[in-house]
Structure formats: structure tokens, C-alpha cells
Design goal:
The chain is mostly helical. Among the domains are: 57-87; 111-227, no CATH class. The protein has helices at 20-37, 43-85, 87-93, 111-133, 138-154, 160-181, 190-204, 206-227. The longest helix is centred in the first third of the chain and has 43 residues, at 43-85.
């Protein structure tokens, strides 16, 4: 029996050729794979960079805070050692709190309170004169002078002008009020009695009015000079 061997064609060992349609369909897939393999420049990358920078800067901040604590601890230890070595010097070195300024703007009686003090006390003194002697006398004058000086002494500093100006005006108002109450030894019409009483009060009571007003002004001046 004879075996026959046929020659093998070269086309059997040749690589299979690809059609143009298959190559065109495979190109988008290769492009997608290449894009997926590259790192994305998005916010994640920025965040990762920030984290990396923070990781680098964090040890420096920790070291600075540690140095500050060490310096503070050393300062406290120095002060303690100085106080233990010389307690008297440590007591002398302590800062004393500042003492409040006398008659500060917010301390004292208000201007309205001073006006009420002078008016009420002087009126009570005038009524006491009427009850004792039947007419306005020395109790009215003494009450006015004393309360004028006391008012300028206890009023708060920003109301000092009120305590200096008010006494003379209060005196005039009180004289008008007393003229309606004090009727002893007066006759004639209402206008005649009022005119006579007011004129006589300002003549005979002028010293007390000027003394009270001057006392208030002098005390106010001394207070301003002391605090300035």
C-alpha cells in the first residue's frame, strides 16, 4: 500500500486577517480601557493632595505646641522656685487691683434724688416753723443750706451741674409754696399778700439762699478738682 502526502498550503499557517468592520468596533473599547487606566484629575485627587500636605504639616504643628507647653511649664517652675526662695519679694511683686476712683460717674445719688432731697427737707423745715412759731423762720433756712451742701456731696459726678444750679431754683419755688400756706400778719388782696411775702422772703432769706448755693458750688468744684 502506498501513502500519498499532499503539500500543505501556506495559507493554513498564516494569521487570520481581520475585517475593517471588526477593527472599527474594537477601537472604542481600547480607548475606554486606556482612559480607565489613567488617573483622574478630579476633586478626589485634590483631596488626596491636601491630605498628604496636612500629613506633612501636622508633625510641625505638634512640635510647636509641645515647645510652647514646655516653655510655659519652665516659666511656671521658675516663678515657683523664685517664690520659694524669697516669699517676701513674691508678695511685693503681686499686682494690686486698682482702687475705684472716688465719686465715679455712676456712683452716688442722681440729680433728681438731690432735687427731691432739698425740696422735701426744706419744705418740712418750713412746715415745722409754722407749727412752732406760726411763720417761716430759721428751720426753713437751716434745712435749705444743709441739704444744698449734702446734695452736692452725695450726687454722682455727672449730675454735679444739677446739684449746683438746682438749689437757687428750688428756693424760689419753695418760697411761692410757703406764701400760699403762711398767712400770719398779712392782709389785703391775694396779689398784695403774695407780692409782700415773696419780696420779704427774698430780702430776709437772701443770706440762706446764697449760702446754700455757694456751698453746693464749692463742694462741686472740690470734687471735680479731686477726681481730675
Amino acid at each position: 500500500m502506498r501513502l500519498s502526502v499532499e503539500p500543505v498550503s501556506e495559507s493554513v499557517f498564516a494569521e487570520p486577517t481581520e475585517s475593517p468592520e471588526s477593527a472599527a468596533a474594537r477601537e472604542p473599547a481600547h480607548a475606554a480601557e486606556a482612559t480607565a487606566g489613567q488617573p483622574k484629575a478630579t476633586g478626589d485627587g485634590v483631596a488626596e493632595a491636601g491630605v498628604a500636605e496636612a500629613g506633612v504639616a501636622a508633625p510641625a504643628g505638634v512640635a510647636a505646641s509641645a515647645d510652647a507647653r514646655s516653655a510655659e511649664r519652665a516659666s511656671v517652675e521658675d516663678r515657683l522656685s523664685a517664690a520659694m526662695s524669697d516669699p517676701a519679694a513674691a508678695r511685693r511683686g503681686r499686682a494690686r487691683p486698682p482702687s475705684p476712683a472716688p465719686y465715679a460717674n455712676g456712683r452716688g445719688v442722681t440729680g433728681r434724688g438731690v432735687v427731691a432731697l432739698i425740696a422735701v427737707t426744706t419744705l418740712v423745715g418750713g412746715l415745722a416753723d409754722l407749727a412752732v412759731s406760726g411763720h417761716r423762720s430759721f428751720l426753713f433756712a437751716i434745712a435749705f443750706m444743709v441739704t444744698s451742701g449734702v446734695g452736692a456731696l452725695v450726687v454722682r459726678r455727672r449730675d454735679l451741674p444739677t446739684a449746683v444750679i438746682a438749689p437757687a431754683l428750688i428756693y424760689c419755688v419753695l418760697i411761692l409754696i410757703m406764701s400760699l400756706i403762711d398767712r400770719s400778719g398779712l392782709s389785703g388782696s391775694f396779689s398784695t399778700r403774695e407780692s409782700y411775702y415773696v419780696g420779704n422772703a427774698f430780702v430776709t432769706g437772701a443770706p440762706s439762699m446764697w449760702i446754700g448755693t455757694t456751698a453746693a458750688a464749692l463742694i462741686g468744684y472740690l470734687r471735680i478738682k479731686r477726681t481730675s
